C-alpha cells in the first residue's frame, strides 16, 4: 500500500505536537495526583518506616492502625476521641444546610424566572452582588447579630449562616436552569389553573432533577470543606471536621505522628472525594452552567 | 353579544409600548385567525386575551364578562402552544387531566372527559405514554386534547402547527377545522404566519403588521379586496404583481398608465379617487393575467418557468415591468417566448402610491 487513492476513513498520524500535548497532560495528572498518593501511602505506614524518608514508596508493612487512631483516639487538645466527633458534627451541619439552601434557592430561582415579580431583576442583581462580597466582611456584624439574638455558637447558627451564604449561588443556578425551560410550559400550567406552589411542585420540580443533583454536589462539597464559618459560628460543641482536623494536626506533643495526621486528612476528604468520583459528570455540568465561584 | 372583545387595549413591556389601543370583536362560534409576519404582535395579542400578559389600558371581555383582571384559569379559555408545552414528567392522561385536577373536578368526570377527548383525537391508545415517547404530530394532538377537556368556550391557538412537517401540518389543519365544526358555538382564535392556514381555517382573518390590525375580513375579502399594499403583498402566493403608474384620462373614463402599459379601469373604482395625474399602484394577481394574442399588454418575454403540476408559474418582463402569471398546468411555454397578456380589469386593485391604501 504505497500510493492508494484516498478511500474510506482518513488515517490518523501521531505528530510531534500531539505527543507534546499527551506528555503535558500526563505530567499535569502526576503533579495533581502525587499529593494524594503520598498522603495515602504515608497513612498506611508505621512511624518507623516513615522515618526512613522514602515518602513515595509503597509501604513494606501495611498498617491500618493510623486510620483507627485518627478516627477514634487522636487528641485535639485535651480530648482524645479522634476525628469522629468532628465527622458527626459535620454531618449534622451538612444535612440541614444543604437541604434548606437548595430548597430556598430552588423556590427563589423559580419565582425570579417565571413569575416576573416586580423588581425581580433588581433583586437578582442585589443577590448576585452579595455573592461577590468577601465573606470576611460579614463575620463581625454577623457575630454581633447572633450574639444579640442568643443564637451564637449553636448548630442553628452555623446552619443559618450556610443557608444565607449559599442562597445567591443557589438562586443563580436555579434561575439560569429555569430560564432555559420553555416559558410556554409555564403558560400552559397557568391556563390549566396551576398556582405558584402547584406549578412548582407538580410541573417544574419534577423537571429539575439534573440541576438538583448539581446543586447538591456544590453545596455538599462547599459546606463540608468550610473552615472559617465553622470555626466562627458553630461553637465548641459543634466544631466541624475541618476545624477538628486542624486541631489534631496542630496539637502534637512529642513526636509528630505523620501517619495519623494523613489518615485524619484522608478521612476528612472522603466525603468531597466520593462526591467528585461518583458525580464528576454532573459536577462539570454545574461548572458549565456558570454556577461555580472561584 | 360577542364571545371575545378586545376594547382599546394597550400592552407595554417596560417602557416599550407594544399595542396602543387595539380593538377586536369576535362573534360566538367564529374562527378568527390573526395573521402576520413575526414581530407583528399577534402572539402578544393572544397572550393578552389569555391573561398571560397584563394589559396597561383597555378591557378584555370574554363571554359577556369583563375578564381584564382575571387569572387565565378563570377566563373560560383553553390554549394550545407552538412548542406543545406538554408536562414532560406526566403521562398523556395526566397531562390532559392536569387542569381538571387543579380545578378539583370529581374523578369520574375527569375520566369521562379525557376518554371523550382522546376518542375525538384518536389518541386513546397513547394515554399511558409519556410525551417523549410521542412523535411531533401525536404531541400536538395531545396538546389539543388537553385544551379540549377544559370544555372552554374559547380556544386560543398560538402557531400550533409551526413545528410540524408539511404533511402533518395539512392533516392537523383539517382536523382542527373539523373540530371547530363539531363543537358548535366554540369560538377559536388562531395565530399563525402561514397564509394557507389562515385562508383555509378562518371565518375572518385579522392581518397584522407593526402591532396594528391592517385589515379584518373574510378570507375572500382579504384576498380579493386587500385594504392596503401590505395586505395585498402578504396574502397570496405567488405574490400579487404591483405596477407603479398614474391615472390618465381615456375616451371612456379613467385609465391606468405605466410606460407602455395602459388599462381602462372598471367603474367600481370610485371616480373621486381617480383624478387625472394621481400616482397609484396597480395590483393584479398572477391568475388574473391571461395569455391572449389580442390582449392589450404585448412585448413580454418569458424569463423563468416553474411547474407546479396543477398550474404553471411564469416570470416575464418587458424591460420595465416584471410580472408573474399563473397558467393552467397544461399550457406549455418555452423560455424566451414572447407573450401578450390580457389583465382582467374587474379584478385589479388600485392603491394610493403614497399611503399604500386601497382606492
TrEMBL record, chain A:
One protein family per Pfam: BPD_transp_1
Alphabetical list of InterPro entries matching this protein: MetI-like, MetI-like_sf
Keywords tagged on the record: Membrane, Transmembrane, Transmembrane helix, Transport
Subcellular localization, as worded in the UniProt entry: Cell membrane
Domain of life where this protein originates: Bacteria
Chain segments annotated as transmembrane: 21-40, 93-112, 124-146, 152-174, 195-218, 262-284
GO biological process: transmembrane transport
Recorded topology in the membrane: Multi-pass membrane protein
Domain (ABC transmembrane type-1) ranges: 87-279
A Gene Ontology cellular-component term: plasma membrane
SUPFAM superfamilies: MetI-like (SSF161098)
Keyword Membrane recorded: yes
CDD domains xref list: TM_PBP2
Family, as annotated: Belongs to the binding-protein-dependent transport system permease family.
Name of the protein: Carbohydrate ABC transporter permease
Record lineage: Bacteria, Pseudomonadati, Pseudomonadota, Alphaproteobacteria, Hyphomicrobiales
TrEMBL record, chain B:
Matches recorded under CDD domains: ABC_MalK_N
Pfam family, one: ABC_tran
Statement: the UniProt record of this protein carries the keyword ATP-binding: yes
GO biological processes: carbohydrate transport
Bilayer topology term: Peripheral membrane protein
Keywords: ATP-binding, Nucleotide-binding, Transport
Gene Ontology molecular function, alphabetical: ABC-type transporter activity; ATP binding; ATP hydrolysis activity
Family, similarity comment: Belongs to the ABC transporter superfamily.
Protein name as annotated: sn-glycerol-3-phosphate ABC transporter ATP-binding protein UgpC
Protein source organism: Stappia albiluteola
Amino acid at each position: 500500500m504505497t500510493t492508494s487513492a484516498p478511500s474510506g476513513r482518513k488515517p490518523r498520524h501521531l505528530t510531534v505536537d500531539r505527543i507534546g500535548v499527551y506528555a503535558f497532560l500526563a505530567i499535569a495528572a502526576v503533579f495533581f495526583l502525587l499529593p494524594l498518593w503520598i498522603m495515602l501511602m504515608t497513612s498506611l505506614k508505621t512511624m518507623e518506616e516513615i522515618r526512613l524518608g522514602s515518602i513515595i514508596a509503597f509501604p513494606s508493612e501495611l498498617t491500618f492502625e493510623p486510620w483507627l487512631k485518627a478516627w477514634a483516639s487522636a487528641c485535639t487538645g485535651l480530648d482524645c476521641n479522634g476525628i469522629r466527633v468532628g465527622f458527626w458534627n459535620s454531618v449534622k451541619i451538612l444535612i440541614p444546610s444543604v437541604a434548606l439552601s437548595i430548597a430556598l434557592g430552588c423556590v427563589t430561582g423559580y419565582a425570579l424566572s417565571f413569575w416576573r415579580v416586580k423588581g425581580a431583576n433588581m433583586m437578582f442583581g442585589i443577590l448576585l452582588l452579595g455573592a461577590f462580597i468577601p465573606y470576611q466582611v460579614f463575620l463581625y456584624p454577623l457575630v454581633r447579630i447572633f450574639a444579640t439574638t442568643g443564637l451564637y455558637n449553636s448548630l442553628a447558627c452555623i446552619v443559618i449562616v450556610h443557608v444565607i451564604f449559599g442562597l445567591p449561588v443557589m438562586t443563580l443556578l436555579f434561575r439560569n436552569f429555569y430560564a432555559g425551560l420553555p416559558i410556554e410550559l409555564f403558560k400552559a400550567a397557568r391556563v390549566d389553573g396551576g398556582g405558584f406552589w402547584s406549578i412548582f411542585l407538580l410541573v417544574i420540580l419534577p423537571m429539575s432533577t439534573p440541576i438538583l443533583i448539581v446543586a447538591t454536589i456544590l453545596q455538599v462539597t462547599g459546606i463540608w470543606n468550610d473552615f472559617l464559618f465553622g470555626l466562627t459560628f458553630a461553637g465548641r460543641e459543634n466544631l466541624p471536621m475541618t476545624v477538628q482536623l486542624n486541631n489534631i494536626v496542630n496539637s502534637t506533643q512529642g513526636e509528630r505522628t505523620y501517619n495519623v495526621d494523613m489518615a485524619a486528612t484522608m478521612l476528612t476528604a472522603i466525603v468531597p472525594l466520593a462526591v467528585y468520583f461518583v458525580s464528576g459528570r454532573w459536577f462539570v455540568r454545574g461548572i458549565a452552567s456558570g454556577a461555580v465561584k472561584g | 353579544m360577542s364571545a371575545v372583545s378586545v376594547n382599546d387595549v394597550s400592552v407595554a413591556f417596560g417602557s416599550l409600548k407594544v399595542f396602543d389601543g387595539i380593538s377586536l370583536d369576535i362573534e360566538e362560534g367564529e374562527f378568527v385567525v390573526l395573521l402576520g409576519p413575526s414581530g407583528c404582535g399577534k402572539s402578544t395579542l393572544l397572550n393578552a386575551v389569555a391573561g398571560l400578559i397584563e394589559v396597561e389600558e383597555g378591557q378584555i371581555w370574554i363571554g359577556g364578562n369583563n375578564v381584564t383582571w382575571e387569572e387565565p384559569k378563570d377566563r373560560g379559555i383553553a390554549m394550545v402552544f407552538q412548542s406543545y408545552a406538554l408536562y414532560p414528567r406526566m403521562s398523556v392522561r395526566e397531562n390532559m387531566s392536569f387542569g381538571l385536577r387543579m380545578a378539583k373536578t370529581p374523578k369520574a368526570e375527569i375520566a369521562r372527559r379525557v376518554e371523550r377527548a382522546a376518542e375525538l383525537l384518536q389518541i386513546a391508545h397513547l394515554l399511558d405514554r409519556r410525551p417523549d415517547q410521542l412523535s411531533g404530530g401525536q404531541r400536538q394532538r395531545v396538546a389539543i386534547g388537553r385544551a379540549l377537556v377544559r370544555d372552554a368556550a374559547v380556544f386560543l391557538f398560538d402557531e400550533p402547527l409551526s413545528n410540524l412537517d408539511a404533511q402533518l401540518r395539512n392533516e392537523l389543519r383539517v382536523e382542527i377545522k373539523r373540530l371547530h365544526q363539531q363543537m358548535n358555538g366554540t369560538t377559536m382564535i388562531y395565530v399563525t404566519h402561514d397564509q394557507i392556514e389562515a385562508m383555509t381555517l378562518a371565518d375572518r382573518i385579522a392581518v397584522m403588521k407593526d402591532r396594528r390590525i391592517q385589515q379584518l375580513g373574510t378570507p375572500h375579502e382579504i384576498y380579493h379586496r386587500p385594504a392596503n399594499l401590505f395586505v395585498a403583498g402578504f396574502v397570496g402566493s405567488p405574490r400579487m404583481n404591483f405596477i407603479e403608474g398614474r391615472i390618465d384620462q381615456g375616451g371612456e373614463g379613467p385609465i391606468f398608465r405605466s410606460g407602455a402599459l395602459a388599462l381602462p379601469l372598471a367603474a367600481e373604482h370610485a371616480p373621486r379617487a381617480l383624478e387625472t395625474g394621481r400616482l397609484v399602484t396597480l395590483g393584479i394577481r398572477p391568475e388574473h393575467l391571461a395569455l391572449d394574442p389580442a390582449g392589450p399588454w404585448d412585448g413580454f418575454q418569458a424569463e423563468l418557468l416553474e411547474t407546479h403540476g396543477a398550474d404553471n408559474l411564469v416570470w416575464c418582463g418587458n424591460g420595465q415591468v416584471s410580472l408573474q402569471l399563473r397558467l393552467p398546468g397544461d399550457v406549455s411555454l418555452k423560455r424566451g417566448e414572447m407573450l401578450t397578456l390580457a389583465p382582467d380589469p374587474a379584478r385589479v386593485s388600485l392603491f394610493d402610491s403614497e399611503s399604500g391604501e386601497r382606492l
